[in-house]
Amino acid sequence: MRDNFKSSFGVLVAMAGSAIGLGNLWRFPYLMGTNGGAAFIIIYLVLVFLLCLPIMMSEFVVGRRSQVNAVRAFKVLHPKGRWGLVGVLGVLASVALIAFYCVVGGWTIDYLVHSVSFSLPEQGASEGFFAAAVSSPWRTLAYTWVFLLLTALVLLAGIKDGIERYTKIMMPLLFLTIIVIAVRSVTLPGAGAGLEFLFRPDFSKVTADTFLNALGQAFFSLSIGCATILTYGSYVKKHEKIVKLSSLTAVSDTFFAILAGIAIMPAVFAFGISPSEGPGLLFVVLPDIFDQMAGGGVISILFFFVLFIAAITSSISLLEVSVTFLIEECRLRRRTAVLLSSGVCLVLCTLCALSGGVLSDIRILGRTFFDFFDMISANFLMPLCGLLVVVFVGWKMKRPAFVDELSNGGTLPNRRLYDVIFYMVRYVAPIVIAVIMIFGWL
Prior knowledge:
This protein is mainly alpha-helical. Helix content is 76%, strand content 0%. Helix 5 crosses helix 7 and helix 8 (159-186) packs antiparallel against helix 14 (296-329).
């Protein structure tokens, strides 16, 4: 018998856990720092609520209506044609994501261990410390493998006893801890400049790349286009309200992303650091800030604990996509499917982990393994999969089936709202995604 989520709260925290991850704490601050601060936030918010939310609902509809894995879902809902390839793209996107995601998750464990032992580098030594962590083969491999192992252990317990049970504990802790850090950050002398940067837009830095980065970040952060929402949706019972759950997930994710900016940017400005430091902002700049901050040792423990929880809740959802696929398509037991999926991910994340050191000279399209999997997932596979999902829902499922699923078989009011969402999915979403992707690539 197929496992399901037990409660509405369990569904919400699982979906929020999938959405709230390294995309909010690791990716969002440096993209914001290099794309005009609040200008990037405004573009991001528009894309999230006018474009990505209908796409999320579309994935949710496909998953719950089919009640199967990402690949078979499209075959069940439309047996003719080769729409199952959309599910294949989603599975590939989830694998590409977790390939480099486990490496960054490993870094969080590394820094958390050093925080707990109060052995983070002193001011001025952070860059060398991070370089050593990335380039040391056994150090980065060990923490990467530990992170993947922890992800696999949760999945072995299943949906109710694994994913739902642990995310119910981890997500409230995640929000509470980031709020504590944000309060400390905004009370630092000079923190006002960071808040001004966050909330005063600089549109002079907005380019076509800004829109592509915002779209890629929205997809990355909300777990759209990598079949995680679709997979989780297939475990959701028919009485649950898709519009409500999707909206609360998007609001929670966006709120957390802005909280992350408030936790990080005021501290960055308070200590005279450039907000455009790039991906190294968290692992190179923040340890220097913690070293100068009163109570910085405790704050560093809280921060890297938050980073770890955010990472593990998202990696769980990413790995579950391929696990569900193997269980249903290859008729494997969950234990075997988890081990096989983890084995494939182990190989790929090992390549990504070593790309900062012994494999740094090996390039794919001019990029290291780590940068290649980051680029191919966020800027190609996920937007393309999202585009094909809305085309499928808008033009193959047709409006009656879509509205029927959103309205729980016509038992929920606001039918006009569901019609608006359908037309957003059918006409607006495909055009906007295609235009942004094309201009971004050009």
